[in-house]
Amino acid sequence: MPVLRLDPDRLQPAFDALAARVESGVVSAAVLAVGTSDGLVRDEAFGMVGEDLAGVDDRFYIASITKPIVATAVVQLAAEGRISLREPLRTYLPDLSEGHAAVTAWHVLTHTSGIPDDPFGGWDGTPRDELVRRAMSRPLDFAPGSRYAYCSSSFFVLGELLARADGVPFEESLRRRVLAPMGMSATSFSPTDPPGTWVPVLDAPTEGMDAAATAALLGHLASIAMPGGGLWSTAGDLLRFARAWLRGGSLDGAQLLPAAWIDLMGREQTTGIREASPDGIAPERDPRYALGWGKPVGGGDVPCSDRAVEHGGISGTRLFVDPATDLAIVVLANRWDHAETSRAVVAAVHSALVPA
Question: How many domains is the chain built from?
């Protein structure tokens, strides 16, 4: 691939594409931020939040974009020599069930653990301790490493790993290891803490509830601090995380990971492992997954390099990072289980890349 650079004057079609999604009602609010290792190039918000115009600092539910953030904290433990990603997790979590004896952090980070998925506990108010217990004890769906099956529940195990390694609650471990060093002060497991405008998600289970019921459910979700998909964040915070990735693991004097570990996390890990067919009928696919990151290369979505990583969330959000082109893209949207908007906008941003 020839060396490419971002031409800011060619970004307008990407912003127009997101504006069109809002104008058509696909989403009611959205933000696009594009940056490089040097900083923000351009950001813009579209739509409404209640009776107010959406703003670039509004907080969106980023859902599974939580995964690469938590994965980074787990890989820090490996970089510190405190765990091995390939060692059975029972070495560090002896109360894991016997059936989980072969499960490693690598399996969880690549969605090949076999742990059954039920991250919200049926939306019935199941407390965090019970969700952790289920992830650590339910019979596996398949032998670890034999199949890929995307799983958010398995990240509860990684949350326990971080909590016990650091001797503090999981949320505090994540704050100390990633959020605070990166200056991600608007990122948390609660939409209302810190205070500010937060954007409801269309078609989510909370939609249609009265204010009291919505507050109760959001409070419950904050209380379980779901490591596989519970964070709320802003475009600015996510861009800071992405810029550290572009800069080899460091930003403003704070180091997320040594560069070699950043490189490892971005490499495809699932070569030769097929995605388990959920119904036994759908064709098995190549999942193309790294450590806590998806690999967009080869899927035909965007003309990116083999160093690119990305992750989407069920709320319509997407974070894309490509060190080869020094490009970071954040798309925040608010439609449950609708990824088309963010994928199309990420693809449109790539039209602004020109020969260096």
Answer: 1
Q: Buried b / exposed e across 268-298, counting CB within 10 Å, b at 16+?
A: bbbeebebbeeeeeeeeebbbbbbbbbbbbe
Q: Which stretches of the chain are DSSP H helices?
A: 12-23, 66-79, 105-109, 128-137, 155-166, 170-174, 211-224, 235-246, 259-266, 340-349
Q: Which amino acid is at 258?
A: P
**Rounded to an integer, what is the distance from CA 181 to the centroid of its chain?**
18
240 pLDDT above the threshold of 60: yes
Amino acid at 335: R
What is residue 247's three-state secondary structure?
coil
* 36-45, 88-97, 147-156, 275-284: least confident range: 275-284
pLDDT on residue 276: 80
pLDDT in tens, 37-74: 999 999 999 999 999 999 999 999 999 999 999 999 99
What is the domain extent for residue 219?
A: 4-355
Q: What distance in Å separates the CA atoms of residue 338 and residue 231, rounded to the nearest whole number?
A: 18
Torsion angle, CA of 72/326/306/70, rounded to 10 degrees? Answer: 10
Q: What is the pLDDT of residues 256-270, one digit of tens each?
A: 999 999 999 999 999
d(CA 226, CA 230): 5
87: which 2 tokens?
């060692």
Q: Which residue has the tokens 């040594």?
A: 258
Residue 251 parent element (H or E):
strand 250-251
Looking up residue 30, the CATH number of its domain turns out to be: 3.40.710.10
